[in-house]
Write a structure and sequence with these properties.
9 strands, four-stranded parallel beta sheet, elongated, five-stranded mixed beta sheet, 7 helices, single chain
């Protein structure tokens, strides 16, 4: 039986030592297992390692979960791995957005979605409303799934909204519970005048002042307010 080679020695550069200290605990735990495996066998992770120098001596290892990247140099003659840098990349999570509205206010839904589209293009959010339900599908099941997965809830607050039994009984309780227990973000948009002080959403922070609804504004003022709401949502969903 051929004699097994000794594992590679591990050495840290100054940058390697400093960046290792910046790793979150879960990435540090994964790092030790990765280094042990690479020291024993440079080809331990064929699908996760790629050369980033022409001679192949400097390599980048990418760990799937928790996210971790290790830059290292291989000195085959001395059997040493020089660890140059570590980073735990932040993984962007696309947040599902549920828009609750009255069908009588559909024009405001379309206007809002125009302003939210750049967030979808950046894959920060995935906007859902009941206009996406296909004919013949289990519409109640589709709504229930969208409610259960929502990370952001947007309410287009009008008297029509308050008068809707379906919103009051099916959507509001689920989304308010999600805000309390799952950290679902709430955006209440005052679209038209209504008795907001007695609304089930009165205790939440509103995206625009409830006594300054959109339908009392000029087109320019509406665009300005919706742009401000866009920026608030962008800031909120960009925080992990």
């Amino acid at each position: 039986m051929p004699e097994q080679a000794d594992p590679y020695a591990i050495q840290y550069s100054e940058s390697g030592r400093a960046s290792r200290k910046e790793l979150p605990p879960e990435a540090q735990s994964a790092l030790f297992d990765v280094l042990d495996a690479l020291a024993a066998n440079l080809d331990a992770f064929p699908g996760r390692v790629r050369a980033i120098s022409r001679d192949g001596s400097i390599r980048l290892y990418s760990h799937p979960s928790p996210p971790l990247q290790v830059t290292y140099e291989v000195d085959a003659s001395r059997r040493v791995l020089y660890l140059e840098h570590f980073v735990a990349p932040k993984v962007q999570v696309t947040k599902p957005v549920f828009i609750s509205y009255s069908h009588k206010d559909a024009k405001w839904l379309e206007k809002l979605k125009q302003f939210l589209r750049p967030l979808e293009d950046k894959e920060l959010v995935r906007v859902w409303d009941d206009s996406e339900i296909r004919p013949g599908s289990d519409w109640l099941g589709d709504i229930s799934k969208a409610l259960a997965s929502a990370r952001v809830a947007v309410f287009l607050h009008t008297q029509n909204f308050l008068d809707s039994p379906f919103i009051r009984e099916k959507e509001l309780p689920v989304l308010i519970e999600a805000a309390q227990n799952r950290g679902c973000l709430i955006f209440v948009i005052a679209v038209s005048s209504s008795p907001f002080e007695d609304s089930p959403l009165a205790r939440f922070q509103w995206a625009n002042p409830p006594n300054e609804p959109l339908d009392l504004m000029s087109d320019a003022e509406q665009s300005k307010t919706l742009t401000e709401i866009y920026r608030k949502m962008k800031a909120a969903v960009s925080v992990e």
